[in-house]
Amino acid sequence: MTDEPDFDALFAAAQPVQARAYAPYSRFKVGAALLADDGAVYSGCNVENASYPVGVCAEAGAISAMIAGGGRAIRALLVLGDGDTLVTPCGACRQRIREFAAPETPIAIAGPNGIRARFSLAELLPASFGPDNLRQ
Ligand code: THU
Protein backbone atom coordinates (compact mmCIF):
# COMPACT_ATOMS: atom_id res chain seq x y z
CA MET A 1 0.00 0.00 0.00
CA THR A 2 1.50 3.29 -1.07
CA ASP A 3 -1.24 5.66 0.10
CA GLU A 4 -0.52 7.48 3.34
CA PRO A 5 -2.78 6.01 6.02
CA ASP A 6 -5.10 8.34 7.89
CA PHE A 7 -3.34 8.36 11.23
CA ASP A 8 -5.58 11.17 12.46
CA ALA A 9 -8.53 8.78 12.14
CA LEU A 10 -6.61 6.08 14.01
CA PHE A 11 -5.72 8.55 16.77
CA ALA A 12 -9.37 9.58 17.04
CA ALA A 13 -10.41 5.93 17.25
CA ALA A 14 -7.79 5.09 19.88
CA GLN A 15 -8.70 7.92 22.25
CA PRO A 16 -12.11 6.69 23.45
CA VAL A 17 -10.99 3.08 23.83
CA GLN A 18 -7.93 4.16 25.80
CA ALA A 19 -10.29 5.95 28.18
CA ARG A 20 -12.27 2.72 28.61
CA ALA A 21 -9.21 0.52 29.26
CA TYR A 22 -9.41 -1.76 32.29
CA ALA A 23 -6.07 -1.16 34.00
CA PRO A 24 -6.68 -1.10 37.77
CA TYR A 25 -3.29 -2.68 38.56
CA SER A 26 -0.83 -0.77 36.39
CA ARG A 27 -3.05 2.32 36.07
CA PHE A 28 -1.51 2.56 32.61
CA LYS A 29 -4.26 2.82 30.03
CA VAL A 30 -3.44 2.02 26.43
CA GLY A 31 -5.53 2.29 23.29
CA ALA A 32 -4.76 0.84 19.88
CA ALA A 33 -6.44 1.36 16.54
CA LEU A 34 -5.65 -0.23 13.21
CA LEU A 35 -6.68 0.20 9.61
CA ALA A 36 -7.49 -3.17 8.09
CA ASP A 37 -7.56 -4.44 4.54
CA ASP A 38 -11.36 -4.19 4.49
CA GLY A 39 -11.08 -0.42 4.95
CA ALA A 40 -12.44 -0.52 8.48
CA VAL A 41 -10.78 0.79 11.63
CA TYR A 42 -10.65 -1.63 14.56
CA SER A 43 -9.66 -0.67 18.08
CA GLY A 44 -8.81 -2.24 21.40
CA CYS A 45 -7.65 -1.39 24.91
CA ASN A 46 -5.68 -3.23 27.54
CA VAL A 47 -7.74 -5.45 29.84
CA GLU A 48 -5.85 -6.43 32.98
CA ASN A 49 -6.59 -9.24 35.41
CA ALA A 50 -6.08 -9.92 39.11
CA SER A 51 -3.94 -12.80 37.91
CA TYR A 52 -1.47 -10.38 36.33
CA PRO A 53 -0.08 -12.49 33.45
CA VAL A 54 -3.59 -13.03 32.12
CA GLY A 55 -3.94 -9.36 31.21
CA VAL A 56 -4.29 -8.53 27.52
CA CYS A 57 -2.63 -5.67 25.65
CA ALA A 58 -4.50 -3.08 23.61
CA GLU A 59 -2.92 -4.30 20.38
CA ALA A 60 -4.17 -7.85 20.98
CA GLY A 61 -7.68 -6.50 21.51
CA ALA A 62 -7.57 -4.52 18.29
CA ILE A 63 -6.38 -7.56 16.36
CA SER A 64 -9.17 -9.69 17.85
CA ALA A 65 -11.70 -7.04 16.85
CA MET A 66 -10.28 -7.03 13.31
CA ILE A 67 -10.54 -10.77 12.90
CA ALA A 68 -14.01 -10.91 14.42
CA GLY A 69 -15.11 -8.02 12.20
CA GLY A 70 -13.92 -9.61 8.98
CA GLY A 71 -10.58 -7.89 8.40
CA ARG A 72 -7.64 -10.10 7.57
CA ALA A 73 -4.61 -7.79 7.28
CA ILE A 74 -3.24 -4.73 9.08
CA ARG A 75 -2.43 -1.76 6.82
CA ALA A 76 -1.49 0.68 9.60
CA LEU A 77 -1.57 0.69 13.39
CA LEU A 78 -1.43 3.34 16.10
CA VAL A 79 -0.74 2.84 19.80
CA LEU A 80 -1.78 5.52 22.28
CA GLY A 81 -0.43 5.71 25.81
CA ASP A 82 0.30 8.28 28.49
CA GLY A 83 3.57 9.24 30.14
CA ASP A 84 6.75 10.77 28.81
CA THR A 85 8.19 7.76 27.02
CA LEU A 86 7.17 6.04 23.79
CA VAL A 87 4.53 3.36 24.33
CA THR A 88 5.78 0.90 21.75
CA PRO A 89 4.21 -2.55 21.44
CA CYS A 90 5.63 -5.22 23.74
CA GLY A 91 7.57 -8.10 22.24
CA ALA A 92 4.62 -10.48 22.22
CA CYS A 93 2.44 -7.91 20.47
CA ARG A 94 5.10 -7.26 17.84
CA GLN A 95 4.79 -10.92 16.95
CA ARG A 96 0.99 -10.72 17.03
CA ILE A 97 1.13 -7.78 14.62
CA ARG A 98 3.59 -9.69 12.44
CA GLU A 99 0.99 -12.36 11.80
CA PHE A 100 -1.23 -9.86 9.97
CA ALA A 101 1.11 -7.13 8.71
CA ALA A 102 3.86 -6.72 6.13
CA PRO A 103 7.38 -5.65 7.14
CA GLU A 104 6.77 -2.13 5.78
CA THR A 105 3.47 -1.65 7.63
CA PRO A 106 3.64 1.68 9.49
CA ILE A 107 3.17 1.75 13.26
CA ALA A 108 2.63 5.13 14.90
CA ILE A 109 3.26 5.72 18.59
CA ALA A 110 1.13 8.46 20.09
CA GLY A 111 0.83 10.32 23.36
CA PRO A 112 -2.09 12.41 24.55
CA ASN A 113 -1.18 15.24 22.19
CA GLY A 114 -0.65 13.21 19.07
CA ILE A 115 1.89 11.09 17.23
CA ARG A 116 5.40 11.05 18.72
CA ALA A 117 7.17 8.53 16.53
CA ARG A 118 6.66 6.24 13.63
CA PHE A 119 8.25 2.91 12.79
CA SER A 120 7.84 0.14 10.27
CA LEU A 121 7.05 -3.29 11.62
CA ALA A 122 10.45 -4.45 10.36
CA GLU A 123 12.13 -1.80 12.51
CA LEU A 124 10.31 -3.04 15.60
CA LEU A 125 10.71 -6.74 14.78
CA PRO A 126 13.68 -7.33 12.47
CA ALA A 127 14.41 -10.71 10.89
CA SER A 128 11.06 -11.91 12.08
CA PHE A 129 9.45 -15.31 11.89
CA GLY A 130 6.04 -15.29 10.24
CA PRO A 131 3.47 -17.24 8.27
CA ASP A 132 5.77 -17.49 5.23
CA ASN A 133 8.25 -19.53 7.24
CA LEU A 134 5.68 -22.31 7.47
CA ARG A 135 4.94 -22.33 3.70
CA GLN A 136 7.46 -24.71 2.17
N1 THU B 1 0.30 -2.30 27.35
C1 THU B 1 -0.43 -2.34 26.19
O1 THU B 1 -1.64 -2.62 26.23
N2 THU B 1 0.21 -2.09 25.03
C2 THU B 1 1.50 -1.68 24.92
O2 THU B 1 1.96 -1.40 23.83
C3 THU B 1 2.33 -1.55 26.12
C4 THU B 1 1.72 -2.05 27.38
C5 THU B 1 -0.40 -2.53 28.63
C6 THU B 1 -0.18 -3.85 29.26
C7 THU B 1 -0.50 -3.54 30.71
O3 THU B 1 -1.91 -3.63 30.90
C8 THU B 1 -0.09 -2.09 30.89
O4 THU B 1 0.01 -1.57 29.57
C9 THU B 1 1.23 -1.91 31.59
O5 THU B 1 2.21 -2.68 31.02
From TrEMBL:
Question: What's in the keyword line of the UniProt record?
Answer: Hydrolase, Metal-binding, Zinc
Pull one GO CC term from this UniProt entry. Answer: cytosol
Identify the SUPFAM superfamilies for this entry. Answer: Cytidine deaminase-like
Q: Which reaction does it catalyse?
A: 2'-deoxycytidine + H2O + H(+) = 2'-deoxyuridine + NH4(+); cytidine + H2O + H(+) = uridine + NH4(+)
Entry binding sites for Zn(2+): 57, 90, 93
Q: Which InterPro entries does the record match to this protein?
A: APOBEC/CMP_deaminase_Zn-bd, CMP_dCMP_dom, Cyt/Deoxycyt_deaminase, Cyt_deam_tetra, Cytidine_deaminase-like
Where substrate is bound, by residue?
A: 46-52
**Gene3D superfamilies with a match to the protein in the record:** Cytidine Deaminase, domain 2
Q: Name one GO molecular function term.
A: zinc ion binding
Explain the purpose of this protein.
Answer: This enzyme scavenges exogenous and endogenous cytidine and 2'-deoxycytidine for UMP synthesis.
Protein family: Belongs to the cytidine and deoxycytidylate deaminase family.
Protein known as: Cytidine deaminase
Q: Which organism is it from?
A: Bosea vaviloviae
Q: Name the lineage.
A: Bacteria, Pseudomonadati, Pseudomonadota, Alphaproteobacteria, Hyphomicrobiales
